Amino acid sequence: MKRAIKKVAVLGSGIMGSRIACHFANIGVEVLLLDLTPETADKALETAVKSKPSPLYTSAALRLIRTGGFEDDLPAIASADWILEAVVENLEVKRELLEKVAGYRAAGSLVTSNTSGIPLHLLAEGMPEDLQANFCGSHFFNPPRYLPLLEVIPAPRTSPEAVDFLLDYGDRYLGKTTVLCKDTPAFIANRVGVYSISQLFHYVAEKGLSVEEVDKYTGPVLGRPKSATFRTADVVGLDTLARVARGLYEHCPEDEERELFRLPAFVEKMLANNRLGAKTGEGFYKKVKKEDGSTEILSLRLDSLEYGPQAKVASPALDAARSLDSLEERLKFFATGTGEPAGLFRANSFGLFSYCSRRIPEIADELYRIDDAMRAGFGWEKGPFELWDLLGVAGTLEAMEKAGNQAAAWVKEMLAAGCSSFYRLKEGRKEYYDLSSKAYREVPGSGSYLSPGLLKRQGTVWKNAGVTLADMGEGILNCEFHTKMNTMGSEVIEGLNKAIAIAEKDFRGMVIANEGQDFSAGANLALVLMYAAEQEWEEIDLLVRAFQDTMMRMRYSAVPVVAAPHNRALGGGCELCLHADHVHAHAELYMGLVEFGVGIIPAGGGTKEFARRAAEERVAGGIDDLEILKNRYMTIAMAKVSTSAAEAFELGYLDRGSASVSINRKRQLSAAKKKAIEIARGGYVQPVPRNDIRVLGRQGLGMFTVGGSNMFSGNYISAHDRKISEKLAWVICGGDLSAPAEVSERYLLDLEREAFLSLCGERKTLERMQSILSGGKVLRN
């Protein structure tokens, strides 16, 4: 049966239901959101839309959501292709609603439950045959837009076709890591994740560690989110964690670690006092207002359950680990180290490894499903078996046994058979150890997803300290940055130029992509500050000129260049994208020209590009010249950053004629490669530099000068803000031209560079740069 999802009905508008509805609207699907009453659904949706971070890519998506009540509007689900139940986690409530759904749904339509733990066989029992064939669990993780995990749990009579469709649809259209789960308590991610947190709770209670210590020891240094352990509990809600833990204790009598799901006394007391985390305003952390109006985040003392100022965590071992670049190095440091961070790491990791090994085949037949679930649902950089691989399976198993942690027998059998790791790479494809066949099998989809790391291992063409060029196959070269935060210093500029030269000689196209946390945080601001403080103006001029020349060389290269940005693409990272032939972005894209915040203007071609795009917009739309230019100017002057790729189109950073979007990050690089091939095959012709950009001169300068003066007089901006705004206006208007005129790109680049240099000579600009570099705060001086 061929399925298409044109309309979705979400039943239940609570925290999960309203946000799931928003995410379907994000991808352009019509949504019917129902609750007990239309007013309940309206209020819930309004609350969701106002929440931070937003569940919507742009506010325009809201038009796709219609609300209603069960009593009057439930018959409307007959037109839905997918009916998703997300009401309160109560078996009887869900069954009663599903019985009503059976009377209205169209035959063949999907019906799924967002339950986080109710057995699917109990929900499906007694349903009509067609409904049972099209019914299963679809467990989204909150917030649905940002956490990529979607657990798909078949009921006893769910058709394989329905399961396959959901796994594929979640991947391709919703941007999810879809994980097939068994109908076991808490499924996969919560079973393992809540075990890990519960184990830590008990360890902390025994050792007397502080909230701050545990969150420092179990955060990014171990490849975990910044929220680490206790802040994660606050975000999820302590009541939610307790409900899952109690459910596991009740429904898993054979679990050898069952007693860990009995929560320690301090957790029970917090629950009794309604200290549930973010939802009640206090949990392991509490935000309070100080007398001066500022806010302070206090932490809980677990012995007294009183709040106090957060204590600074002093740990030489932690400092030493942070100095190590790779996760593998840090893990090995803790695995063999001394001190509290190392002791906690071994206790938690050894317990986790042994627990996960014994959950196969109970919760999953294949070990990669556990790793997928933990990465996507809990934000871990690596899953348990991947972490074990990094440490070395055999050596770690020996250490675990000495510490009293017994792994499942199959691990020793695997090692005895000469299989030394849970995963291996073979001919560019990732394989996992399969328990049933006792051999390695390919991880499904590994051939479909490209990654810079894999390309690097397969075919590095050239590299320096900050860039690696790799052959992607089919005539496409990949250029990967790997500096800190992927900032663009001299090594990246060298790498980009080398990439263009090699691509023009030996390839038919190039992709710029990396797998860092951010695409690029921009130019190396610390270097600019150092030169400015030492008044090395020639060095700054050379630095900016080299960046501009590189952007222009890329824009006018003999082969098409496709940029594939994700997460943050700021400053110079944004300017790079502005000069690519095509941008294939990830849906979660935080793109912006943010230079104004550090006292300068975009000088890597960003201001020039906005002047050019404004000129073309005027020609295409016939709209008022000044209004168009003002919109472009304000985007830079207010350092606007998109909150999604969709908003990047609205802000003018992405152009609909030369940009596309992947909602699934794993598919982005493959899609970018295909786009580069498509452009090359389409008869790519090397562009010619522009000398016909129409700028407004004094006509535009007058508007911006008056506007800046009014803003300054009204105390909306400082004197230095006014100075920066005047420099920006000078460039985007083409300087002091008596009438509108056509100018070249080089002319505008020279204006950019001159303005940049002059602002670097201002003390207040240096103060702003220092503030960003030292504390990450924008200074308005």
Automatic annotation (TrEMBL):
Coiled-coil regions, chain positions: none
PANTHER family cross-referenced by the UniProt entry: 3-HYDROXYACYL-COA DEHYDROGENASE FAMILY PROTEIN (PTHR48075), 3-HYDROXYACYL-COA DEHYDROGENASE-RELATED (PTHR48075:SF7)
The organism's place on the tree of life at top rank: Bacteria
Organism: Anseongella ginsenosidimutans
GO biological process: fatty acid beta-oxidation
Listed InterPro entries: 3-OHacyl-CoA_DH_NAD-bd, 3HC_DH_C, 6-PGluconate_DH-like_C_sf, ClpP/crotonase-like_dom_sf, Enoyl-CoA_hydra/iso, NAD(P)-bd_dom_sf
Domain 3-hydroxyacyl-CoA dehydrogenase NAD binding: 7-184
One Pfam family from the record: 3HCDH_N
Any one GO molecular-function label of the UniProt entry: (3S)-3-hydroxyacyl-CoA dehydrogenase (NAD+) activity
Residues in the signal sequence: none
Record-given protein name: 3-hydroxyacyl-CoA dehydrogenase
Catalytic activity of the protein: a (3S)-3-hydroxyacyl-CoA + NAD(+) = a 3-oxoacyl-CoA + NADH + H(+)
Pathway: Lipid metabolism; fatty acid beta-oxidation
Keyword annotations of the record: Fatty acid metabolism, Lipid degradation, Lipid metabolism, NAD, Oxidoreductase
Domain 3-hydroxyacyl-CoA dehydrogenase C-terminal: 187-286, 368-418
